[in-house]
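Quick one:
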Amino acid sequence: MRILAIDFGLKRTGLAVTDPAGIIASALDTVPTVELMDHLKRYVAKEPVEGFVVGLPVNLYGTPTDVTANVQLFVAELKKQFPGQWVETADERFTSSIAQQAMIASGVGKKARRDKGTLDRISAVLILQGWMEKRRT
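Output:
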């Protein structure tokens, strides 16, 4: 079964998912946040999802950011809407900057790097990969 990662944002949210064997993390989609729950319900209805990993934004020293409370509210709603799946949070510090650097390193042009949806999807992949690495060790 798949694990779905969520890089929650106030405007749009990046999604990533593992392959059915849970070995490879891949970008899935970027969704307007107002449509997120409906999108997740449709996805879970057609694909078996074991659980969700939600990026938790914290500052450099581990203290909450101005978005942390919104993410915590979303996590509570996610648990309520999907009682058959587990929900975990994962530290998402530096994922956006690492995603930006990955885009630069891969030769993505400046115009394409301005697409925030791509950045959100890559950040979701990084959240999922980090979570998978911690589980393996």
